[in-house]
Specification:
By secondary structure, the chain is an alpha+beta fold. The chain is 18% helix and 33% strand. It has helices at 17-22, 63-69, 80-97, 191-199, and strands spanning 36-46, 52-61, 105-109, 112-113, 118-127, 130-143, 150-154, 161-165, 172-174, 181-185, 217-221. Strands 1, 2, 5, 6, 8 and 9 form a six-stranded mixed sheet that branches. Strands 4-3-7-11-10 form a five-stranded antiparallel sheet, with no helix packed on it.
């Protein structure tokens, strides 16, 4: 398991997005979950005219969360077929439940919000003791990144779950114009925010939008050809 860049103490019941993702699917107990993490892998999709039309994202959940949502993982010898069946059932419902939260994505084009995103479930897998969810997020209309700068962030607004790009993974640019570049900018929360986040106890609700201050920013630039 990776070392958390901004480690927080154990949190209150039903940490942030467990309730959002699983809703009524999960029990309401779950008191005192530790801080969780998700590894991201991203592939941006471009059409024949070299315009951005969608983004495919892979979310690899940590072993604790995976075992919490996939009951079969808690068995001494998990049945791989039943594990996959559970993942296939849960994955689409996670994506549906996240629609009210913009699928935890915030996109901008030349500084202006990109709204009305839609997403579809692609697949779910179990890799050893971790669940992977793959979803495809569609733009309402294509964007020509040769005419403006595109930026995206993926984060849990409560920051109970840390979402960062996987180590050594650079966002893919499938079909992009020649010379396009995606640059990951590390989060730089202020000292006050770091102290605030660290001092939250399990009975407190975090400030709305806390997670955005700890999110990576990915900026995509393409030369005007």
């Amino acid at each position: 398991m990776r070392v958390l860049r901004f480690a927080l103490p154990i949190k209150r019941q039903c940490i942030g997005l467990l309730g959002l993702w699983a809703g009524a699917l999960l029990p309401s107990a779950a008191v005192g979950h530790p801080h969780e993490w998700i590894d991201l892998r991203v592939s941006m999709q471009f059409d024949a005219e070299r315009r951005l039309i969608a983004m495919e994202q892979s979310w690899l959940f940590d072993p604790f969360f995976s075992a919490y949502v996939l009951e079969e993982l808690t068995a001494n010898r998990p049945n791989r077929r039943r594990l996959q069946e559970q993942a296939d059932t849960l994955g689409p419902q996670m994506v549906t439940n996240l629609s009210a939260h913009n699928f935890l994505n915030k996109w901008t084009y030349d500084g202006k919000p990109v709204d009305h995103l839609t997403a579809s479930f692609v697949s779910a897998h179990v890799k050893r003791k971790q669940m992977e969810l793959i979803l495809r997020i569609e733009l309402p209309q294509p964007l020509d990144l040769r005419q403006g700068t595109f930026e995206y962030r993926v984060f849990d607004p409560t920051y109970y779950i840390e979402m960062l790009h996987a180590d050594r993974h650079r966002p893919g640019l499938k079909g992009a114009p020649r010379g396009c570049r995606a640059t990951i900018h590390e989060p730089e929360p202020s000292e006050d925010l770091l102290i605030y986040a660290a001092e939250l106890d399990r009975n407190e609700s975090p400030e709305d939008g806390l997670g955005q201050h700890f999110a990576e920013r990915v900026i995509v630039t393409c030369p005007d050809q």
